[in-house]
Specification:
This protein is α+β, with helices and mostly antiparallel strands. Helices cover 43% and strands 10% of the residues. It contains 13 helices and twelve strands. The strands form four sheets. A six-stranded mixed β-sheet has the order 1-5-6-4-3-2, sandwiched between helices. Helix 6 packs antiparallel against helix 8, helix 6 (203-222) runs antiparallel to helix 12 and helix 8 packs antiparallel against helix 11 (347-360). The longest helix has 45 residues, at 36-80. The N and C termini lie far apart (116 Å).
Length: 443
């Protein structure tokens, strides 16, 4: 009985073979003699087309896999040997699940910023640490490069005026960087932006923010044997903590500076429109002075309380740099001031600040100061504004001291605390280059 059912099925299948009216199982030829050739070419053409389609499909799959493999290979540098990039003091590899939990599965309500690299979310780790989570666009080749550069840079440098790296995640080809949370967001939003609820910054606060940012950039330029050039200094990349302490952020475009015996690095132009150094833009010659120029633009934004490019304004005032520099050369400095800083502002402090802006925005790099010199000038401007009364939080009503000898040397006691971690050879190199320039000017 066991074989009856299978045999029956097989017999039935045989009976169901197609037969003609003569009960013959031999198939008839369906093509007529006259059309057999044309039909044959149709069949051949169809077959050839199908083969081509299959070939194209296979080729596209191979290309996609090769690109994906490249991305995985690049990212594996960090996932297979995370200790080569991150150590226990600077950050660690964070599981994707933990990042999801920290951001409530990347909830739209948690978004605190959107940039070219991707979206930034506010989050909280299990231990209660508030963090900012930047999730990159996985389909951007440039994003992958920036992702790796930023991890490398942030893991090498630690400074109180640079945003700290908490960790990163590269599971499933994700490009996620976790930073310390900066409660007061970007400087840009306190100067203009769309967030009108933010209180406007007074002059002293703006000076202190400039000084903090300058310290961070000065450390990048002198904190190791080879300078690091940020390449994207702008008000959106200067973040403020709960105490309005400034920290430089976003190191995705950062690049090693020139060697001791080199004047510049030749590289493709990258950065933000309106902040780019003219020499770098036209000659593709990158130096530390490129950051100085960009920082000068930020200082101008701080002074005026408006963006570097404002299409809503008349043509003659739409470009902040052109308009402000023209007004300053005419001696009309007050016309470019943000009304929110006029109260309690001391002219000596303002003039020192404006002079520094003009030097930073010099067309030629050698004519610009180093970040160390910029830092000293800003500290001098703060001293000229007057010391802060700790009881009231306001500047003292007394006039600046007659003896301002502390503003006559770029190595004041006030800035000595920022020399920790600075490469003396790099700082000395900047001094020598500056002295050579001054000597050549005199000759």
């Amino acid at each position: 009985m066991r074989n009856v059912l299978p045999d029956g099925i097989l017999n039935g299948l045989e009976i169901m073979k197609i037969s003609n009216s003569k009960n013959s199982l031999v198939a008839e030829i369906l093509f007529s003699k006259t059309s057999s050739k044309s039909k044959r070419w149709v069949v051949i053409g169809s077959g050839f087309g199908a083969v081509c389609l299959v070939g194209l499909a296979l080729a596209s799959i191979l290309v996609h896999r090769r690109r994906r493999r490249r991305a995985v290979i690049e990212l594996s540098k960090y996932s297979e040997e995370p200790s080569s990039v991150l150590n226990s003091k600077t950050g660690y590899l964070i599981p994707f699940k933990a990042v999801q939990e920290a951001t409530d599965n990347f909830c739209e309500e948690m978004i605190i910023g959107i940039g070219g690299f991707g979206k930034v979310y506010k989050g909280m780790l299990k231990d209660g640490t508030k963090v900012a989570v930047k999730r990159g666009n996985r389909h951007s080749n440039q994003g992958l490069s920036e992702f790796m550069t930023e991890i490398e840079m942030l893991s090498k440098f630690r400074h109180r005026h640079l945003v700290s790296l908490i960790g990163y995640c590269n599971e499933m080809n994700e490009m996620i960087i976790i930073y310390e949370y900066m409660a007061n967001g970007a400087l840009k939003n306190h100067l203009y932006g769309s967030e009108h609820l933010l209180p406007k910054l007074n002059w002293r606060q703006r000076l202190e923010i400039c000084i903090g940012s300058a310290r961070g950039l000065h450390y990048l330029h002198t904190g190791s044997e080879k300078a690091i050039i940020h390449r994207d200094v702008k008000s959106a990349n200067i973040l403020l903590d709960e105490n309005l302490m400034a920290k430089v952020a976003d190191f995705g475009l950062s690049k090693d500076g020139p060697e001791m015996d080199q004047t510049h690095v030749s590289t493709a132009v990258k950065g933000s429109f309106g902040y780019l150094d003219p020499e770098y833009l036209t000659r593709q010659q990158l130096t530390e002075k490129s950051d100085v120029y960009s920082f000068g633009v930020v200082m101008l934004e701080i002074l005026s309380g408006r963006p570097v490019i404002d299409p809503s304004r008349p043509k003659e005032t739409a470009n902040l740099i052109e308009w402000a520099m023209k007004e300053m050369k005419r001696g009309e400095l007050e016309t470019i001031l943000d009304p929110h800083i006029k109260e309690g502002l001391k002219m000596e402090s303002l003039q020192k600040f404006a002079e520094t802006v003009e030097k930073c925005l010099a067309e030629c790099g050698p004519d610009r100061p180093t970040m160390g010199e910029v830092l000293w000038n800003l500290e001098c401007a703060l001293q000229l504004q007057g010391r802060e009364d700790k009881r009231t939080g306001e500047g003292t009503p007394s006039t600046p001291p007659d003896d301002i000898s502390t503003c006559t040397t770029p190595f004041s006691v006030a800035s000595m605390g920022d020399l920790e971690g600075v490469s003396m050879s790099r700082a000395f190199s900047q001094m020598v280059k500056s002295d050579v320039k001054d000597l050549s000017d005199k000759i």
